[in-house]
Amino acid sequence: TDLPFRPIISGTRCPLKRLAALVHKLLEPFPKKVSSFVQDTWDLLRKLPKTVQPGSELISLDVKDLYTNIDNDLGFKAIEYYMDKHPELTHNRLGKNFILRSLQTLQENILYEFNGEIYSQENGCAMGKDYGPTWATLAVGYLEETKLYPQIRRQYPTEIADKFEKDYQRFQDDTLLINEHGVSKDLILELFNNLHPQLEFTSENSETELPFLDVLITIQDTTIETQIYHKKQTPSTTYTSEATIRGTQKETSRTPSLVG
User: What is the pTM of this model?
Assistant: First the structure.
């Protein structure tokens, strides 16, 4: 049977590599202004509450194939939104117009070779681009601030909405929620799946424990406890393909490995 795989397009030796790295550097300060932003495990641990209400539920959500499903229109709107909201973070000389024009050039020239054929990715951001994580973080952050939070405030009392925003954490495509007010998990999933027609969220929930990043989060009575979480490793073979526009290709394999 065929195994599902995720193509990673390396831009290491492409002509636009330096431009992509520059754009990544210029956009680097903006994700920290996204209210749900989690930088790493230590940042998550600092932001987790110490206690929760009795009967609270842990919910994690994941976006399916986030990078390739963020269309260019959403990506550009998100980046422009945060640059307008935080103009103090924009470089004095390499400003908004330079960044948007550079991103347009980069997004219009995602080219790769497979089996001797040249392909162009017409939409979404290629996994492997320097600015990819920032592109993804800002795109979902834009949907959160312009659609998700306002919708929650329309449907729920201020206390619940405030608590939601405070405890809502996201690392790129992985989201953690602490549901303390008995809101239906199906309704929460519906809210997220209505954010954008191309983004599909899946969810997992538990009243006792749930892994998030490399942390196992546990609810003991009303106390939040954490410990290191290790994913189960399954022996497998990973194939790495490296190709350039000139047509060179090299394949290597190793076993065992972890296919993510």
Answer: 0.83
